[in-house]
């Protein structure tokens, strides 16, 4: 899951411009490819760790559905807050 970056289109264009100036247009695809591979390896490693933790928990009889219950409670709380604040937001 990616976190939202609060960067506007103009700021992104400026960053890309600086990257092109510093590294040159020839190196940008290579840098992007390297970053993509690094992000993929990080994601794969994270998924491996998660699966190992899940396997270990199941092997030891630990209930892993606790997070699902917590997620349901959080979603319910969000809905309740939206029900309460919905009319207030519309009036502003």
TrEMBL record:
A cellular-component GO term for this protein: TAT protein transport complex
TM annotation in the entry: 6-25
Pfam families listed in its UniProt record: TatA_B_E
Localization terms from the record: Cell membrane
Alphabetically ordered keywords of this record: Cell membrane, Membrane, Protein transport, Translocation, Transmembrane, Transmembrane helix, Transport
Topology in membrane: Single-pass membrane protein
GO BP: protein transport by the Tat complex
GO molecular function, one term: protein transmembrane transporter activity
Keyword Membrane included in the entry's annotation: yes
Family as reported in the entry's similarity comment: Belongs to the TatA/E family.
Function: Part of the twin-arginine translocation (Tat) system that transports large folded proteins containing a characteristic twin-arginine motif in their signal peptide across membranes. TatA could form the protein-conducting channel of the Tat system.
Oligomeric form and interacting partners: Forms a complex with TatC.
PANTHER family: SEC-INDEPENDENT PROTEIN TRANSLOCASE PROTEIN TATA (PTHR42982)
Protein name: Sec-independent protein translocase protein TatA
């Amino acid at each position: 899951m990616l976190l939202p970056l609060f960067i506007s289109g103009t700021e992104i264009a400026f960053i890309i411009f600086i990257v092109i100036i510093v590294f040159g247009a020839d190196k940008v695809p290579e840098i992007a490819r390297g970053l993509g591979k690094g992000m993929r390896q990080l994601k794969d490693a994270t998924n491996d760790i998660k699966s190992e933790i899940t396997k270990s928990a199941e092997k030891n009889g630990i209930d892993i559905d606790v997070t699902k219950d917590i997620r349901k409670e959080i979603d319910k709380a969000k809905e309740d807050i939206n029900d309460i604040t919905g009319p207030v937001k519309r009036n502003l």
